[in-house]
Amino acid sequence: MPKTDRPQSRRAALLEFAVLGLLHDGPLHGYELRKRLTTALGIFRALSYGSLYPALKRLVDAGWIHETQEPTTAGKRPRITYELTADGKEHFQDLVAASGPDAWDDDDFDVRFAFFSRTEAQVRLRILEGRRSRLEERLANIRDASTRNRERMDGYTLALQQHGEDAAEREVRWLEELIVAERRATLDPGPTAYDDTTTDITTTTNTSTTNIKE
To answer: How confident is the model at residue 47 (pLDDT cuts 50, 70, 90)?
Structure first.
């Protein structure tokens, strides 16, 4: 399998992960890829072609995706379709199998969660539990800072602090619901048990993402 030794930022690595995940469902043009990245994943809301196409080139050079130029009429730019290779599928499976602390961070977690349907149950559970621990630690820090500095804060700062505490509390509750659902599905993987929780998860995800990103 072709390999690259290039250093890259976490955001660049996250973008490549998201591209591989989207292409896992089938080939896409660059325009459609950008559209899905900007509408479905908040971290890439302002993604430019100047960031996307270099990432696609790196993935092509690594042998993880293949590009095909479609024939066009005279005067029009050729449309390029990107497709996951066999090595790319294997690499993506290696990525979704990872469950280290990076997967618990804000942006990383959001992108990882978007591809949970392709992630093994035990990996999903480790990521959810790690994320919950991270949020509980953040919540404790917010409360401690609020207690120590309350007398020195004006009304606006207090309101902002309370907003952060409320948001962290909501996400902790949401994560706890997801963890319970994952554990229940592991014990009883039948369609009824899991379909019911999937509906709840989808609804709660939309609400939680909106609240946390405000």
So the answer is: confident
